[in-house]
Records
---
Amino acid sequence: MKTSIQALVLIACIATLAASCTLSEIGDKTKSGFKKTGSYISEKSQKAYGSTKKALGLNKNSTIDLPPMSVSKQTFGTMPDGKKAYLYSLANANGMKVKVSDYGGTVVSILAPDRDGKFGDVALGFKTLAEYQEKSPYFGCITGRYANRIADGNFTLEGKKYSLAVNNGKNHLHGGVRGFDKRLWDAEVDENDIAVTFTRTSPDGEEGYPGSLACKVTYTLTNDNELRIDYKATTDKPTVLNLTNHTYFNLSGEGAPTILEHELSILSDYFVATDDTNIPTAITPVVGTPMDFRTFHRIGARVEGDYEQLKFGKGYDHTWVIRRNDNGLAHAVTLKDQTSGRVMEIHTDQPGIQFYTGNYLDGTLVGKSGKAYPHRSGLCLETQMFPDSPNHQGEKGWKSCVLNPGETYKHVIVHKFRAE
């Protein structure tokens, strides 16, 4: 009798996956398209079920009760104007959970399994909305309109000069004084796809940028333990745009003291060299430098090396040119933590990825677990256009960051978690 019940549970789980879950096919296939290929759904559902058992150390004949897939909502805090901010919890069939707030589209937590099946939060962040408002160094947020730096806060577009806020030394950083990270977004939940979509229209002239920009950002948690982020935007005037996610990761778990023992591989032959204010000067080969991550390197092995670029960035704080064969999703990086066995891959359609080693964390910020975040206790891997691209349009090796009326900006990031 027990065997029959367990079999029915497994069948029900697979049927639920086929009826309501987003599968990790990289592309824009729809649910109806998947339903036409029933064998694909069955295979992927069984794979998700099997991978869960493996992560928990069970053999192929073992049975487990899968938790229900869900999207839930709770109050996160109150904005100065009295509006409520909310926290959305996405949970997949494997027990993985991601929490995202409509304040800044902020990833607040990512619970991912280690090699023993134990879940840990691998994203740095705070317990309360107030802390994000008062002191967040861009933890987990949507950065925009233009992520990274623009030299001297100026750029020229179609013969007109635009001046932006200067909020990082003499340069403009992450959209200005009140960028997308400090805005409350509208939210819509999709329980079938384990997703939440945030929308917002940035008015013409906001933070000095031209054009009314309609933005849509969707966070989806798949049953292959992927956190996928899809960005889309349209404008009514020519403008520049560079959106990304700014999560600080520590695969040992947030609150762990360092990321220097993590191992990193970046599929890149070139990086964007900068001056001492982090403004690009050249696209430079990585060969023969501490910027060469074409094979796995321990992050702490060379970060303090006697190399000018590391001194300028106070560690790693640079963009790597992602190696690719086409305009689709490319595998950009793999990050490993030998202690927990957690592994994170990032795939994207963007030309670059910014690797930042938490060089300005100094122990004064206390995170969700009640532990301080010391120097280099978190790292960022931000897929994006190159820094200062608005001032390098038309130059060899630089992709256009200009969005015109009638065009749609698209950007995809896939964070794939596993353990080994």
Note: The chain is about 15% helix and 35% strand.
---
Amino acid sequence: MEEKQVQGAPVHKRRVPYSGTHPRRFEEKYKEHDPEKYADTVARVIEKGSTPAGMHIPIMVKEILDFLQIRPGQKGLDATLGYGGHTRKMLEKLTEASGASGLTDEVYIKDDVQTKGDSWKNPEENSEDNSRDNPEDNSRDNPEDNSRNNPKDNSEEVLREKAPEGHLYALDVDPIEIVKTGERLQKAGYGEEILTILQQNFANLETVAKEYGPFDFMLADLGVSSMQIDDPKRGFSYKADGPLDLRLDPQHGIPASQRLRELNREELIGMLVENSDEPYAEQIASEICKTFKKGRSMDTTTALREAIERALCFLPENKEKKDILKKTCQRVFQALRIDVNSEFEVLEAFLNALPEALADGGRVAILTFHSGEDRLVKKAFQQYYREGIFEEIATDVIRPTAEECRQNGRARSTKMRWAIRAGR
């Protein structure tokens, strides 16, 4: 007899089947996608030094919190919400002694800072690793002066009268992940009294700060989140086949596949050199242009990876070639992602707005993952220090510990810089 579906009963959704004893593809790793239900599995993956599928492990949490010195009653901004790992740790500090944790009110996500009260938005209704280089750091301003590497604790000097619970604002441009993260934080008990999530690019810091600032503490983690990198549908990684997209916000702008067609050989070379210091830029640019001239497409991550392999066919077949190909793919995908999302321009806009966005005595920490980003942050911090806008800045970068790098390989290229706003 044929079974009948009981009206109103939930439809059972079967998990994605996989061959072999262990899932290999992103969508097959159903246990890693549900860390609350399969905590033991997730813990084992992390212990091996890997990042569970669909998750992101926050980097340098202790170093960030030690510097920011977050206290209940303050107002803060997480400029790059992502998976919400840093956000949650900052919220814990913000509610540590205020009794504000455990809130159950709905968190609101706003896609425009002038819009009030917009409720949850479903992106469907609203129509690798980081692949970053780790160059030798030559960023010491004055090796003999370490005073600004250990900021003084001036918490009593900058304490201001505020509502006891404080508030944290968080920005993210990704319409897909922002909803998931908002739901996770709401389930953790952080409601709208303590947390406001804005669907905004952090390039819009000036506008955000005018309405919600100034801020006592700020964090910007410039890395791409692991759940974006690992999802083949987002096209961030050469390791899995997927559409060559690379947009942080897939609802706006053009995908990487279209951007490649717009650039000539000289422009491709310039993009690869400027964004990732690619040593094989000329060979790769020539191969990409040759592919298009033959009438072939480059709409997938696999197609671009194969073009890179063809461009480097002159390399001798030895053990080193595999590693060279891997690192070259990482650099090319990085350079293209930076170009598609205008990442340098976004960072410059953020840095330009930083002085007015910080309250007197306010603290900012920025995590960078490649030399181009770090140079921009270093230059801006030094300029603001010389002008008396910042009273203290880090004289050198802070790096993650060896133990953290062992547990999370994606932390290896991280550099942290910090600054403290002078009084006006």
Note: The beta strands are 75-78, 109-110, 167-171, 195-198, 215-221, 358-368, 390-393, 415-421.
---
Amino acid sequence: MRIISLSKEDFDDYSKNHKYGSYMQTSTYGELETGRGFKVELLGFIDGEDLIGAGMFLIKEAIWSYTYAYAPRGLLMDYDDPEQVNKIISCLKKFFYKKNIVSLKIDPPILASEKDFTGKSFYVSNDINEILSTLKNNGFEHKGFNLYYETKLPRWNVMVGLDTNVNNIFEGFSEENKTKIRDALNLGVYVELNNHISAKTFYELVKPAYGQVGFNYVKAMIDKFTRDGLMDLFLVNLNTGTYLEAANKLYAEEEEINLSLGNMIESNDPRYNKEKVINDKLASDKRLNELKKNVISATNFMKNTPHEIRIGAAMVIKSNTGIESIMLFEDKKYAYLGGLPTLIYELAKYYGKEGYKYLSLGPGVGDFRQSCPQYQTMAMKKGLNSKVIEYAGEFDLVINPLMNKLYLKKQEKDKKKLQKLKEKK
């Protein structure tokens, strides 16, 4: 067993075809993270003449001349083969020790279970305990089966199953979301692929939800991942002309219903259930009032923006078999138009036809109680042909015990200093 440095092309080719390959295990992501002060190592593990594993490692200063390593969503190896894992980790420990690396963190996307939104499991891995045992035997410490966001990357994710048959995708959505999508499309909401939009324009659009990421990082992501053909950008638009036309039509239809109900009440015709007709009239009055607001809103939109309004956006990255949603944005002012479920449906439709197997909707949690602080966020991702994916989690491997201990002490001191500075402010 020996370790070699891989070229960007060779590493990306290996990652693209690996079971655990993801955008975080690409040379592109490594290049992106150099902007945050990391050095990047693209390493391959050779057994005989065969490349049996690889990893994109982010290296950063720990203490003095020592560093630590992190393989986001790595390593790329066969975790079901204990002998192969032993060979790779044994070789890697020696390699990193010589390079003054004190510790290694990994968080491979090893599937532990799949659940519905009540927390009920409909798939549980038969191999997960053996994999955990193999990693433990090689010195890794499992950081636990956390329920929230305690680790670098989320252990829980929400994913939409994709299909080349569009009807199958739509049927997997809840009735509520189906109605929202139909109404949105009728009102003039549409989704467009737009990889030519400037990074500045895209950032300003999503800034209310993703401003903490910062423009420079968003621009770097767009520049690097679109350059390598791994990213797509989408816009959710409202055609104001269609919206006004549809709003007027819906108002006219409801006005006719309302008038008919009023005539039925005045007629005192014994054939009608008067109590039911009165209740229907009250409900129609309420709906008519809402539809009138839509007409006024649509009229103002048409005056101020005669063509279209941007009401949402998405940034996605293509992995080997799936699509990772990096940003899913809906302008809260226009949430009533159903732009978000429509966006997710159109993404699922587009990439399903392309043969991709899943669309990630981003982080989830393992706490399914209504009292959970993240319950509303999880509820928004429900009913979209979606399920909750549980990964094995995060693992730490100490390479140099003494220096790692000093590094952890230094981290603790730095945290205390930072806390005191915050308290002074």
Note: The longest strand covers residues 50-63.
